[in-house]
Design a protein that fits this description.
Number of strands: 0
Structural class: mainly alpha
Oligomer: single chain
Number of domains: 2
Strand content: under 5%
Order of helices and strands: HHHHHHHHHHHHHH
Number of helices: 14
């Protein structure tokens, strides 16, 4: 009795890689087209966008540079939150390794729609685990980080609602997510096991048994949120918007809610629209509001691309020599950008 011929696994792997490469190429082309449209001369744009580009050209570059640094710091804090989740599950990973894996997910989100970066993070962090049930345990860590983020957002929305800048209804949704996570932590802390359900709830149980670990997780998530607040406040300050902190308290929670559904690479257009609407509703002129949205979209995407590409190179060259060259190249690029921004700042001040 003859058996059916078996498929060649190398051919299957190559086919999958070619499919992923084609998708990435299409997504990158769309992203570059959008960037080209945003960089087009004002005469080719409609009047509000033309005025926004003019307002953006008058922004103070030192504040924009500070915003880019805050976005990078937000990535580092988010990676540290994942690292604390891994540590709670008994896994060890270095801070640079964790940042590289998390930032590659941000890089993928900048190029592909549908939160593909989240799946990339799950795959990369699960590969760093030594024991079994890696995918389920990593999914549980992602859920604990999401719960911590919901708790921090509850505080932000309450602060914005107290000033009348945001409605109160998002608090109930976020509080429901936080309560579900707290219940899972309490229920799982005394029931270790080996099944998939136990693996999924392992991180919740570990944080439920150790308030100190839970405090570290909340601290890192709060640090990332504060960094995003600082980046947003710096951007609106660069464009001459008054009360930048109050504006940031409105924009950051609004972007967090809007970011739950990602329609395109880097959520192009959605982020700009949310920022423009939030600022315009506070009495900011439409050109300045649109310019703030464009600046925030561009700087956050640039930070994700820069840190993500560095992280990808870090993971691609695991040898110490390769990683030294990676950091040397990244440092050289940072120096070039610093000189460019410094020249722009001196020219503006002059």
């Amino acid at each position: 009795m003859s058996s059916l011929p078996r498929a060649n696994p190398l051919i299957e792997i190559r086919a999958r890689r070619s499919g992923i490469t084609a998708i990435a190429a299409v997504a990158t082309a769309i992203f570059l087209i959008v960037l080209a449209a945003l960089a087009a001369p004002p005469a080719l744009l409609r009047r509000p966008f033309a005025e926004a580009v003019i307002a953006l050209s008058a922004a103070r570059p030192l504040w924009l540079w500070a915003a880019g640094g805050c976005f990078a710091a937000s990535l580092f804090c988010s990676a540290a939150a994942w690292r604390s989740g891994l540590a709670a599950c008994g896994e060890r990973i270095g801070p640079l390794d964790a940042t590289a894996r998390y930032s590659v997910g941000s890089l993928v989100n900048s190029l592909l729609p549908g939160h593909a970066g989240g799946a990339t993070r799950l795959a990369l962090f699960s590969r760093s685990m030594a024991s079994g049930g890696r995918v389920w345990r990593t999914s549980g860590i992602a859920a604990t980080v999401g719960t911590a983020r919901a708790i921090v957002l509850v505080v932000l929305v309450l602060a914005a609602s107290a000033s009348g800048a945001l409605p109160l209804w998002p608090v109930f949704i976020l509080a429901g997510v936080a309560a579900a996570g707290a219940i899972a932590a309490i229920a799982a802390r005394g029931h270790p096991g080996t099944g998939r359900k136990s693996q999924l709830l392992e991180a919740f149980g570990a944080f439920g048994r150790s308030p100190r670990r839970a405090a570290w997780l909340l601290g890192w998530v709060a640090g990332g949120t504060v960094a995003r607040l600082g980046a947003t406040a710096a951007i609106v300050t660069a464009l001459g918007v008054h009360t930048p902190l109050a504006a940031a308290l409105v924009i950051v929670p609004a972007l967090a809610v809007a970011g739950t559904i990602q329609f395109g690479p880097a959520n192009v257009g959605v982020t700009t629209g949310v920022v423009a609407l939030a600022l315009h509703s506070r009495g900011v002129a439409l050109p300045s509001a649109l310019a703030s949205g464009l600046a925030l979209q561009s700087l956050e995407t640039a930070a994700s691309l820069a840190v993500g590409l560095t992280g990808a190179a870090f993971l691609a060259f695991p040898s110490p020599a390769g990683r030294r060259w990676t950091f040397a190249a990244s440092g050289a690029c940072a120096c070039v950008l610093s000189v460019a921004f410094g020249a722009m700042a001196v020219d503006t001040l002059a």
